[in-house]
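Input record, target 12 of the design panel.
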C-alpha cells in the first residue's frame, strides 16, 4: 500500500478497535451479563481488535504475492522479447510494465516503480534490490539477483532471463504436481463424512425398509 498514510491508518485502526469494540460491548451488555462475562468479552474483543487488522493485512499480502507469482513468467517472456529486440534493460522494464497494466496491474506497478527509481537517480542494482524486498516473492528476488549479477559482470541479460523463466515454469509445474499428489488424501475425509454415508443409505435403505415391513407384518 503505497501511501504516506498507510502506517498511521493501520495503527489507527488497531488502536481504534482496541478502544471502540470493548466500549461498545460494555454499553450493549451492561446490566445483562455478569461481571465475569463482561471481563471475558472485553478481553476477547481487545485481542480480536488487535489481531484482526494483522490477519487482514497478511491475507492481502498473500493474495498480492500470488498474483505477482502468476504473472511473473509472462513478464519474463516479454522482457526477453524486448531485450532481444535491442532495447536496454531499463527500457525493456518500462515497456513490459506498460504492456501489463491491464492484464497484471500489480507487477506492472512494481516494474514502473523500478523505472521511476532509476530515472530519479537511484542505481539500477539498488532499484532491483528494492523490488525484491518490497514484494517478498522468492522467484522475483532470485530474478533481481540474477539481473544484478548480469549487470555487474556484463553477461547476457537475455540468456539470464530465459534461464530464470524456464526455472520458474518448472518450479510452478512441480508445485502443481505436488498439490495434485495430495488431492486423494485431502478428499478422503470429505468422502468419509459426506459421500460414503449417502452411498450406504442408498444401498442399505431399501433392504432396511423391507426388513422393517417384514417384522411389522410378523408382529
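The sequence produced for target 12 reads:
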Amino acid at each position: 500500500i503505497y501511501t504516506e498514510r498507510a502506517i498511521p491508518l493501520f495503527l489507527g485502526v488497531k488502536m481504534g478497535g482496541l478502544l471502540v469494540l470493548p466500549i461498545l460491548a460494555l454499553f450493549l451488555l451492561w446490566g445483562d451479563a455478569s461481571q465475569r462475562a463482561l471481563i471475558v468479552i472485553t478481553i476477547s474483543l481487545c485481542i480480536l481488535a488487535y489481531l484482526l487488522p494483522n490477519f487482514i493485512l497478511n491475507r492481502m499480502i498473500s493474495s498480492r504475492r500470488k498474483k505477482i507469482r502468476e504473472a511473473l513468467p509472462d513478464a519474463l517472456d516479454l522482457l526477453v522479447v524486448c531485450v532481444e529486440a535491442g532495447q536496454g534493460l531499463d527500457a525493456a522494464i518500462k515497456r513490459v510494465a506498460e504492456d501489463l497494466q491491464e492484464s497484471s496491474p500489480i507487477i506492472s506497478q512494481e516494474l514502473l516503480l523500478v523505472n521511476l527509481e532509476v530515472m530519479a537517480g537511484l542505481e539500477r542494482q539498488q532499484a532491483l534490490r528494492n523490488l525484491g524486498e518490497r514484494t517478498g516473492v522468492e522467484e522475483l528476488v532470485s530474478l533481481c539477483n540474477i539481473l544484478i549479477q548480469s549487470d555487474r559482470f556484463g553477461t547476457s541479460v537475455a540468456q539470464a532471463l530465459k534461464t530464470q523463466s524456464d526455472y520458474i515454469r518448472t518450479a510452478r509445474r512441480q508445485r502443481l504436481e505436488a498439490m495434485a499428489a495430495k488431492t486423494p488424501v485431502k478428499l478422503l475425509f470429505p468422502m468419509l463424512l459426506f459421500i460414503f454415508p449417502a452411498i450406504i443409505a442408498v444401498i442399505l435403505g431399501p433392504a432396511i425398509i423391507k426388513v422393517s415391513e417384514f417384522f411389522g407384518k410378523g408382529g
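The two ends are 76 Å apart (CA to CA).
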